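Board notes (copied after class):
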Amino acid sequence: MDQKKVAIIVAHPDDEILWCGGTIINHPEWQCFVVCLCRKNDPDRAPRFYNVLKSIKANGVMGDLDDGPDQIPLTEDVVKRAIQVLLPADDFGLVITHSPAGEYTRHRRHEEIGNAVIQLWQGGQINTGELWAFAYEDGVGKYLPRPVQTADLFFPLTDETLQQKYNMINTEYNFSEDSWEARTTPNAEAFWRFTNSLDAMNRLTKEQSL
């Protein structure tokens, strides 16, 4: 791919690496800006997020949406406003974000952010040529999240790229080898790809209902 501005919009510090870190590593020509909507005031994970951005030569910013264990639902307007406040008003060649169906069963913030990004794109508040939504599933909680091999884009990672990605999860984010994050770290990355916001809304809403 040619050099392009890429916005990566995620819920938590580590989502940018867990679900698309290998893809970022494999595209050093991308100008990446990572928006992380939660944990701005987390004294451990916030500094780690900014250190990881240096490792992948990206810029970014954090917000502080509620991320409590109860996963209290947030309104669409709250999530959309949080994204608009943090995301630069640029034209992006690509936006990468969560699927409204989430990556596993279940994290409400992932789902809410995926929905909000698509709605902002559809309403013209996000300008991008295309959108990639993470394509992972966990068999409704039966196993750790896996990339969907039949997704529009499926990228197996080389051993070298996977090791770089794993090191960021294990060392820079400090997740132990037996943690959910380290055990989940996928050796391939998958995405639903859209060039039309209406198609994205229709298809991902369908995926969410399955």
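Comment from the instructor: The chain has one domain: 5-209. The helical segments are 15-18, 21-25, 45-55, 76-86, 108-122, 159-172, 180-184, 197-209.
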